[in-house]
Each structure stands twice: as structure tokens, then as C-alpha cells.
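User: quick one - fold this with FE2/S2 (inorganic) cluster bound?
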Amino acid sequence: MQIPGATSSRMSRRFSRSGSSPLTAAVLPVPVSAAQPQHRCGSLKRWQTISKATSPEDTDMNELSLTINGRPVTVAPGATILDAATGAGIEIPTLCFNKSLDATGSCWMCIVELKGKNRFVPACDTLVMEGMVVETENEALSSMRRQSIERIIEQHSGDCMGPCELTCPAGCDIPDFIDAIARHDEREAIKIIKESIPLAGILGRICPAPCEDECRRHGIDNPVSICALKRYAADSDAQSSERYLPELPENSGKKVAIVGSGPAGLTAAFFLRRKGHAVTVLESGTEAGGMMRYGIPRFRLPESVIESDLATLRDMGIEFRFNSEFGTAVTLNAVKSEFDALFLAVGAQKASTMNIPGEDIPGVVSGISFLRKSAFAPQMLPGARVVVTGGGNTAIDAARTAIRLGASSVTILYRRTIKDMPANRAEIEEALAEGVTIVERVAPTLIRSLNDLLEITAIKMEQGEPDESGRRRPVPVPGSEFTVKADTIISAIGQKVDSAAAGAAAIESGSGGELLVDPETLQSETPWIFAGGDCVSGADLAIQAVAQGKRAAHSIDLFLSGKPVVAEKPAFNSSFGARDEAPEAFYQKKSPAGRVPVPELTPEVRTTCFDEVVTGYTAESAREEALRCLQCRCNAIADCRLRELASRYLPSRITVQHDHPGFYKAESAEISMEREKCVDCGICVRMIEQLHGTAIDLTIMTESCPTGALSLPG
Ligand code: SF4
Ligand code: SF4
Ligand code: SF4
Ligand code: FES
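Assistant: Sure. C-alpha cells for the protein plus FE2/S2 (inorganic) cluster:
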């Protein structure tokens, strides 16, 4: 549509109120507050009448003096308190104010106190009077601003961030990297991913993708294949002639030692290096990667992918020292004499025991030692019959590895149901397709050695009372014991923390061996020592360790800069609700279109080798899948005034709105309007009114909107 006065350039698109755009009537709101400024109390109105009586026409041109926050300030007559404060470099929060428009004084975010008058007035709409004493920050003002923003937020609805990225423990900007793939800009995609997940190739393969469970696409058909797209971006980068390397600042002159080269340690190394610090990773083994290298079989995570993610870290100048076990090969004193800070990320690599008779007889091995051995000796023979106990990824990985090593029968014994298994869903399905048998609701009670064979006795379980996790506790059914014969029994019921690292660092550890640090900052009681990842949280998802590595880097950087070590405050978030609770019209953005399948080897082929099972998207299939994304993130997230104010006055809060009676999104070729994000500040309407008959720059109008209600179409 041709708009009067429009040019083809996006930056100079024009919108004329007298033009033919339907937006005037149908898209832009006409708030009461804009047409008739409303104030919340009569006394304020009277005060404004008085202050406006001393406007420039009524006074001489002498400067006026006032005091703001104890500072003497002078202004020309006709200036508002907001003008005076801004001129003096004092910030007063505003929402409905726009410097090119008449103030309406309607949102009350700019409220200030007139000392000695017992009055609170909006700074944007109150003229300075001689001798005024103004305070812009105090408890009463914060409380009033909080109430104002709460009232405004109640009328507002929308997703600041997509539920996918809110669910990602590392806070990956999923909508933006998917959008980059949809535009065939793989370089931009990997750059966005590495802002939160430096090990993109690894996590793109092993993460169970809790983000996909919350994807809004559930409201139409199936979630977007976020993880497969992340892997695609990482693989494209790995294959490119010039890999993405983040820009590095000047060297800070500070040195950090990191103990452990698992996901937490490597992530912390990446982000600390990006702050300009010299980083050395101390690894007890001969190669970096920790459990990612030895605890995850090659058919899920090829070594080349680990090397590829590590290559970026090496290219950034991160040093790796191998055979450097902390506490023996490298002492705390040695670290202290060479480094300014220490980050302990030693993981949770000690296998938990089943606590049943016979579990230490030959032929019974832990899941992690079985996987480690098979990584070094892929020709080892576990025998024809293998029994695995446990329901996590290690149990499933061990079972699938045993099949590849030639076992003809692999049985997993699990004390709850398959549905309750903590292992990745996709992995469980792949294991079943490969011939693994899962026996639900059974628990091992005894292992015996019978000549050349092992025999495991198990008992059937039924559901008891809910435990502390809310799940029903499995309880044994008396007299239901049965036995299974096996050549190898693999116990994979969990991992624990080895408290040796805490001892070597002389910091405290908990009853489970976990290192005790401040849960927010990950700083220990010894200020220069930090710890994070599984050695603090207990065995958890790799993506949780990545999140902790990033948090630790933030804290360590503050420590090295001599600043108070405080955690980053999460920003306010508005949400439409859970994955399928967005307004119906929101889901109509896209038509149903099933997931683009991620190609993989057939069970017949893959069980004969350790080749990677999933082969990944091509450029075209990745783009097709990326285009399924609903782009739930608000277009204004980077500069939304409402979110900024809500983050300041309603910290760490998530506002969820399930009812959407007023939802609509109107879009034309020039501008789009999301009604429920509008807070009726009236800026757009005043702009149209004030420029009546003349052309309005739509870019300026959308930029002036303090929320994401108005935007230029992407
Ligand atoms: S308009 Fe602002 S507060 Fe509302 S969803 Fe967008 S970014 Fe969040
Ligand atoms: S549709 Fe896209 S932006 Fe929305 S939740 Fe799913 S992946 Fe995230
Ligand atoms: S929030 Fe945006 S759309 Fe709503 S009245 Fe203000 S400027 Fe207009
Ligand atoms: S009342 Fe001053 S910014 Fe809204």
C-alpha cells in the first residue's frame, strides 16, 4: 500500500493520519489518558494549577533555583522538574513522557516528592517554582512507583521471552538463533548460541531439551526441534572455512585456574577469556572433556565434535594442562602462587552403589566405568547377556553400548515406570528400537556368582506414598522376587560428588560430598575460590553445568575487578502462560506442519557400529524446521521501557496472564500493533494529534512506543 509521503526506505517510512492507512482507526489505541489527562488526586491538580500559573508569561526571565536530592540546581522559567533533573544528570523514571509531546502526567512513574509540602507530583508535568526542594528517590516513591507499574502491568499481556528460552537453564536466545537459521545466516545463529552455550556442538547432541517441552508450538502440533537446529548451527560453523571466534578484549592481567574440563569448567573458561582474563584449565586426565568424553558413547557424541568445540576455546588462548590432578599433582599453594582466582568444576564422577549383597563381585561394574572402558577399548566383550540397573542416561547409554559390543540380550531393570525414567526420551526410544528390554517397577536385592555366570535377584515394586519429589515412592511387593542370569551386570543408579576436591581446596563440603558455596554467586568462604557444576549441585544435566559455568565467570570477573560479588538479577518477564496458553489468535500465525524429521541410521545399521546415530539436518531441512518457529519473543525486548521499569520495581517477577480477552495483532505493510502490549500511555495518539495533517515518521513513532505494542513489520 502506498502511504502519502512515503519513500521506499524503511527508516523514512511515513504514516499520515489523513492518509488511507486503516491503522488510524483500527490499529492505534485511543486511550482516555491521552485525550483527557487524568490525575489521581485533587490536591495534585491544584498544585499543578498553581505551578502553571508561574509559567514564562507570568514571570521575569530570571533563572529559578531549586534543590534536587540535596543538590542546588538552576533552570530557566518554564522548565519542568523533569527538565531540571535531566539537566543536572539526575535520572527520574518515565513511561508516558515523550520530550517532543505535551506531558499528560498519566502514568505517575516520574513521581517525585516536594519536601516540606507533603506533596507528590509527576515531574514531567510540574513546572519548577523558586525554592522548591525535590526528592526523586526514597522508600515512599519506590512504593508508589511499584504500585503504578503493578497497575500498568495488570492491563498488559505478552511474552517478553519465549517459553523455550525461559526454560533453557543457560538462557539461550532460542527465537533469535532460529530466526537466523530461517534467514540462512548460520554465522549469526552460532554467534547468538555462543552468547550462552559455548559448547554448541556437544549440547546440540546431548541436551534432553527441556526447552522443547515448553515450546508454544505444542499449541498447534509438535515442538520445534530446537536442539537439532542448535546442532545444525554448530556443525555449519565447524565446517566453515572461518569458524566463529568471539572478539576478545585487552588482557586484564589477571589469571584464573579452572579445575576440571567438563561443561561447567569449559563454559567458565570461555566467558572468563571473553572478559580478558588469562585462563588455564587443569585436567587430571590426558584429554579435555571430562564425562562428555568418557561418559557418553561415541554413537551419541563423536570425538570430532568434542574436538571441534574445544578448538574454539584453544583458539581463544585458553591453556590446557593435562595430568594435573588438583590436590596431588597441583596443590592449592601452587595454584595460589600462580593464579588470582580458582574455579572448581570437578563434576560428580563417583558411581553410587546399589547397597545390595554381591555388588562388588567380579563381573559387576558401574555404568560410568563400563562406558569409560568401552571408550578406550571398543572391542571389549561384555558377554551375551547383560543386565543394567537404573533409569538415567548412563543406564541407557550402557545398554546401547552393550548391544554394539555384541551382547545378544540386554535388560534394564528400573524401579519405576518407563515414563518416570530421567533419561532423554529420544534415547529411551532409540534403545527400545535397538532391542533393549526395559523391565519396569523392579529393584535388585542380591547378586550371586554361579560358576561362570552372575545371577541377579530382583523384587517387584508397587507405588507407595509420594516422596519429597512428589513422585510416588516405589515399595517392594512381598514374595515377588525373581532372578535373571547375566554375564555382566552394570549398575547405573547415579553418581555422587567426590569431596576430595573440597579437601584439597580447604573449603567445606556437604554430607553428600558436594562443595559448599554461595548458591547465587558460587563463591566459597575463601573469596578467591569458586565452585560450580555437578560438584556443587550433584549430578545434573550438562546444560545446568553450562549455566553454572557462566554464572561463575560473572562472579569471578567481579571479584577480579575488585567489585562486590553479586549475582546478575533476572529481568522481569511477562508471559502469556504455559506453552499452549497463549491467545488462540497467536497460534493462527502458522498453519499445522509436523516437525521436519532429523535423519538417523536405521537400528539394523547402527547397532553394528559406533557411528553417530543421528545424522543431522541439511541446510534446507534446517531452514524448513526453523520456519515453524512462532517467534514468541517480544520484538521490543532489547529496549522495552515497561520491562525495564518492571525489572527495577518488580524484580525477579514473572507475570503470567492466562485470559486474553483483548488480544489482537493488527498488521499492515507499514506498522503492526499488538493491543495487549499497549499500556495506553497515549504517546502514539498524541503524536498523531500534534502532527495533525502532516506526515508522521513511523520509525520514530514505533521507537517512541514504550512497549512492544507498535513495531515495524520485520
Ligand atoms: S512489551 Fe515489554 S513487557 Fe511487554 S512483552 Fe514486550 S518486552 Fe515484555
Ligand atoms: S515456537 Fe519458537 S520461540 Fe516459540 S517457544 Fe517454540 S522455539 Fe521458542
Ligand atoms: S503503549 Fe505504544 S501503542 Fe500503546 S498508547 Fe503507548 S505508544 Fe501507543
Ligand atoms: S506521568 Fe510523567 S512519565 Fe508518566
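One thing worth noting: Residues 10-30+642-711 form one domain.
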